[in-house]
Amino acid sequence: MNPLIELKNITYQAHNKNILSIPDFQIQDGDFLGIMGPNGAGKSTLLKVMALLDSPNRGEILYRGQEIANGIPSLDLRRKFSVALQQSLLLEGTVYQNIAIGLKLRKVPKSVIKEKVNVWMEQFQISHLAKKNAHFLSGGEAQRVNLARAMIVEPEILFLDEPFSALDFPTKIKLMDDFKAIINSAGTTTVFVSHDLMEINYLTNHLAIIVNGEVKQYGPTQRVLESPNSATSPFLNKWKKFYPMSFKQEKPLSLMR
Ligand SMILES: Nc1ncnc2c1ncn2[C@@H]1O[C@H](COP(=O)(O)OP(=O)(O)OP(=O)(O)O)[C@@H](O)[C@H]1O
């Protein structure tokens, strides 16, 4: 079976500097892929290239085995992708209006929009905020709205860049628990950039470690974390000092004491 997305011989440069160099990388259908690495390694750039938000200087991007001509996706293809960033970038208007926007742009009938917004507000436990101005939400509430807005269009692939990193710890673990259950039930392929080993360990099935613009290690998350190679151990071993607990962690984080 073809991977959902494949990158081939990708080079991304800025100001004559190589930011990314990716000979071959694949995202499999249904996977929850983590991307981790030192500051400035190229994680966000890789996410933007995979999400077709930015074009590489060279190389090919394939979607389900089909090359995307000139790296420019059709509107149809673009609509299969959703992106949520650290800053939730909510629009002027209510929570309801923010979550409805993707369906409105797709000209979905109002009655269907209402039904779906209600379902996704319930899933993210924000139904009580429906009429609230989105600019007056707490960080955790805003990120729930952001994720509901990304999920309501039922994307084939969801790209997340540090969505939990600005949240305080209790808010973060509650949202991560809820989000994990939602993604497990929806089965959405997800790509997740994070700085935080706890988030990566808890959420992802596969992990790519990127250093200096290159994927230096890729595999099942537990295997990568337990057996870093010579290129990734300087980065991962620093983390392990601060996160020495067993790497296998299936219990909801909010139940941990
Ligand atoms: N358009 C650009 N012009 C110049 N330099 C860029 C551009 N985009 C990215 N870079 C540089 O490329 C490198 C990788 O940036 P990127 O944001 O992808 O890294 P990152 O791993 O996500 O970093 P961080 O962990 O700090 O968020 C950095 O050195 C950054 O300064």
Automatic annotation (TrEMBL):
It holds the Pfam family ABC_tran. The keyword Transport applies. Residues 5-237 form the ABC transporter domain. GO terms for molecular function: ATP binding. Keywords: ATP-binding, Nucleotide-binding, Transport. InterPro entries: AAA+_ATPase (IPR003593), ABC_SmlMolc_Importer (IPR050093), ABC_transporter-like_ATP-bd (IPR003439), ABC_transporter-like_CS (IPR017871), P-loop_NTPase (IPR027417). The keyword Transport applies. PANTHER family: SPERMIDINE/PUTRESCINE IMPORT ATP-BINDING PROTEIN POTA, SPERMIDINE_PUTRESCINE IMPORT ATP-BINDING PROTEIN POTA. This is ATP-binding cassette domain-containing protein. It comes from Neobacillus driksii.
